[in-house]
Amino acid sequence: MGKKVNPKILRMGITKTWPSLWFERGEKYIQNIKQDVAIRKYMIREFREAGIDQVEIVRSLSKIDINVITGKPGVLIGRGGNGAEELKKKLHDKFLKNLRLGEINLNIKETNRPNLSAQIMVQNMIMEIEKRFPFRKVMKQGLAKIERAGALGAKIVISGRLNGAEIARTEKLVWGKLPLQTLRADIDYARGVAHTTYGTIGIKVWVYKGEVFKKEKEARGEVIAEQ
């Protein structure tokens, strides 16, 4: 029996931090958690073409900051910034009616290397699978993009009724190193579901970007001896 742990949860507070930054107690805490989860699911579901990597939510006593990190900010911002204003109104009407519109700050930021983001790669693969591209081609192209972006290792797993087969199965592609038990390893992980005429197909992506303490030493200009 496998005992699998989400790589992000395992490293929380060590090399990764929480995407929601606020403090509450009791019923208010439950309400805020529901709002955060609903906002993230809505953003990733409705704006897959924008390639959303992460939605950070920072709350204070009187306002909320929503930081959207995306690979294609122009899709969200729109012409003249109209798209961002419309998105802000939608989030207010759907999820944040307890706040005034002026108390919501929506910040759209661009990620430097979108092909190193597991979440963006999952969204791209979902769109291609739903367009009926061959799943093996989608997996190979996804792995090649991650490799060219500068990752040290990656794994892609797809499961379901692949190519409309009668019996569901799981296919896996692995490249490079993937030290899941090393807590200092910077591993990005995401999963998603593609809805096809034959049913749902699950997609999971792991991306290994290197060791965190090595990056910190390189930033300070220190020489790192290879092990």
What is the strand and helix layout of this fold?
Layout: H1 7-10, E1 20-21, H2 26-46, E2 52-59, E3 64-70, H3 73-77, H4 82-94, E4 104-110, H5 118-130, H6 135-148, E5 153-160, E6 169-176, E7 185-196, E8 199-211, H7 212-219
Parallel strand pairs: 1-2, 3-4
Antiparallel strand pairs: 2-3, 5-6, 5-8, 7-8
Helix pairs in contact: 5-6
Could you please describe the fold and organization of this structure?
- The chain is α/β, with parallel strands linked by helices.
- The protein folds into two domains: 104 residues, K homology (KH) domain (GMP Synthetase, Chain A, domain 3), CATH 3.30.300.20; 105 residues, 2-Layer Sandwich (Ribosomal protein S3 C-terminal domain).
- 34% of the residues lie in helices and 29% in strands.
- The protein contains seven helices and eight strands.
- The strands form two sheets. It has a four-stranded mixed sheet with strand order 1-2-3-4. A four-stranded antiparallel sheet has the order 6-5-8-7.
- It is globular, with a radius of gyration of 19 Å.
- It starts with 6 loop residues before the first helix and ends in an 8-residue tail after the last helix.
- The C terminus is likely disordered.
Largest sheet: 4 strands, mixed
Structural class: alpha/beta
Radius of gyration, taken over Cα atoms and rounded to an integer in Å: 19 Å
Low-confidence stretches: 220-227
Strand order of the largest sheet: 1-2-3-4
What is the fold named in CATH at topology level of the largest domain?
Ribosomal protein S3 C-terminal domain
In whole angstroms, the N-to-C terminal distance is 34 Å
For the record, the CATH class of the largest domain is Alpha Beta
Averaged pLDDT, please?
88
Number of domains: 2
Can you count the beta strands?
8
- Portion of residues in beta strands equals 25-35%
